[in-house]
Each structure stands twice: as C-alpha cells, then as structure tokens.
Amino acid sequence: MKPTVSINDLEKLDLRVGVIESVEDVENSSKLYYIKVNIGDHVISILSGIKRYYKKEELLNKRIIVIVNLEHKIIAGKESEGMLLAAEHDNTVSLLTVDKELPAGSIVS
Predict the structure, then answer these.
(1) Separation CA 95–CA 75 (nearest Å)
(2) What is the CA angle 37-69-9, rounded to 5?
(3) How do residues 47-106 score in pLDDT, each as one tens digit?
(4) H helices within the chain, ranges in order?
(5) What are the extents of the domains in the chain?
(6) Which of 54, 47, 19 shows the shortest CA–CA distance to 33?
(7) pLDDT, tens digit, 9 for 90 and up, residues 3-24
(8) Rounded mean pLDDT of 27-54?
(9) pTM above 0.90?
(10) pLDDT for res 16
(11) How far apart are the first and last CA of the chain?
(12) How far apart, in Å, are the Cα atoms of 39 and each of 59, 64, 76?
C-alpha cells in the first residue's frame, strides 16, 4: 500500500465527469491514444496508454472520471492536460465511470 494521505491532500484533486469526444492514434506509439475530453466548460487533451485495452470506437462518448487540475505534461510531442482514471488487474484495464447519465463537468466528491 502507498503512504496514508490527509483529507487536505485529497481535496486538492479536481475530479470531474468527462465525455470522450475524440480519440486519435499517437504516431510511433503502440500504447498511446490522444483523447479529447469534454469537461463541461471546455475540452482538454489527455494522452493515455490504454490502446491495448480499448478500441477507439469503444471510447467515443464514454463518460469517464478525469483529474483536471494535474500539472500539464508533454508526452510524445503532445500536451496532456489531465489524467483519466482506470483500474487494473491481471492485464485487464477498466476505466472509472459513472452509473448515471451525469453531464460533463459534474464534480466527483
């Protein structure tokens, strides 16, 4: 297990419901997708290594949970403005999502 964090640490994360609007392959990468995610008031770009686990068509319009206040990072020459959340076990990856049709930008608390 990782070290214990305080509630103050957890409250720093801005988690939102996002809706995937587009998915592109990343040149020269067998793992990465360049994903555009609507988070309500704007669209962010996320690079994610989920290509082995999902086809592009499976991701379109999917409601997922994203961290929207993560420090931006350049990966494979593209800017990633957040992170999608997923669970992994025995080489299976599952995106975290919501069980109701909440609008893009809904706050996860």
Answers:
(1) 20
(2) 135
(3) 999 999 999 999 999 999 999 999 999 999 999 999 999 999 999 999 999 999 999 999
(4) 7-11, 56-59
(5) 7-95
(6) 47
(7) 999 999 999 999 999 999 999 9
(8) 97
(9) yes
(10) 98
(11) 22
(12) 15, 10, 23
Q: 3-state DSSP call for residue 9?
A: helix
State both tokens at 89.
């076990």
CATH code for the structural domain at 7-95? 2.40.50.140
Q: What are the residues whose beta carbons fall under 8 Å from the beta carbon of 37, sequence distance 6 or more?
A: 18, 19, 20, 21, 43, 44, 45, 46, 64, 66, 82, 84
Which one, of 70, 71, 53, lies nearest residue 62 by Cα?
53
- Scored b (16 or more CB within 10 A) or e, 67-101 reads bbeeeeeeeeeeebbbebebeeeeeeeebeeeeee
SS3 call for 38: strand
Query: Quick one: tokens of 92?
Result: 């299976």
